[in-house]
Amino acid sequence: MKKIWIGGVLIVGVALSSCDTLTSVAQEVISPTGGGTASAPALTNLEVISGLKEALSVGIKNGANKASITDGFMQNAKIKLPFPEEAEVVKEKALQLGLDGQVDKFVLTMNRAAEDASSTAAPIFIDAIKNMSISDGFAILKGSDGAATQFLRDNTTDKLVTAFSPKVKESTDKVQLTKYWTPLTNTYNKTTILTGKPKVNTDLNRYVTDKAITGLFTLVEEEEGKIRKDPVARVTDILKKVFGSLDPK
Fold it and tell me: Which of 97, 100, 125, 175 is deepest in the core (most CB within 10 A)?
């Protein structure tokens, strides 16, 4: 009987020790700083996901708003759509012919198309945020700068292309941009048989769509960077708690 009692005590002791170990491991996983303390309580899964969703929502709202306003692209050197690089020779020829105004209008219209298309991005981003898993959340929180934006890029790019393309086409069609662009580039491409120079991509809508999406992600990543590094940009309590856990102690 005494042996049984001693054995029971040992079993309970091992069980309690195992529980302590599991608790420690759980705290290590949940706390982005490597374990909770009285002054810096560990984050729960729910808090991490809520904080990341909040951060992405703030970044999306700020980034999309900046991109979709008039001159959101045109007056921002970081994301402004330039005359297509592969068509620089076409631009030079137009300038030689004194068509400076047409070149300027071409660039302006491309950027207006990008600004217009950016207004369709928010619902696509929100859908991706809703489907964020716990593992996604921790990977983003502990990831490098831009990890949240990369999550959006991986999960929304194809849908953004689908949404942006008709908006871009609608915008460029308003001023018959493609009508003049395609014949011009087709004519130029015929000369490459003799010159040996590379042909110009005539798909203007795809060019504008890709550049618009790249620019939008640039702005969203800037907003993410502010939240990660600048306490002032953490405009809600959950953002302060989740991203505050990343601040140097």
Answer: 125
The alpha helices in 83-200, defined as continuous H runs, are: 88-96, 100-118, 121-130, 134-141, 147-174, 177-195
The helix-helix angle for 147-174 and 45-68 (nearest 10°) equals: 30
Can you give the pTM of this predicted structure? 0.71
How many H-runs (helices) and E-runs (strands) does the chain carry? 10, 0
Could you tell me if residue 80 is inside a domain?
Answer: yes
Q: What is the pLDDT of residues 190-247, one digit of tens each?
A: 888 888 888 877 788 888 999 999 999 999 999 888 877 777 677 677 777 777 776 7
Distance CA 18, CA 11 (A): 10
Q: Give the model's pLDDT for residue 36.
A: 40
Alpha-carbon distances of 165 from 123, 159, 162, 173, 212, rounded to whole Å: 16, 10, 6, 12, 10
Give a yes or no: residue 119 inside a domain.
Answer: yes
* Amino acid in position 180: Y
175 lies in which domain range? 46-244
User: In the prediction, which pLDDT does 157 show?
Assistant: 95
Q: Which residue has the tokens 């990343």?
A: 246
Nearest to 243 by CA among 151, 148, 127, 134: 148
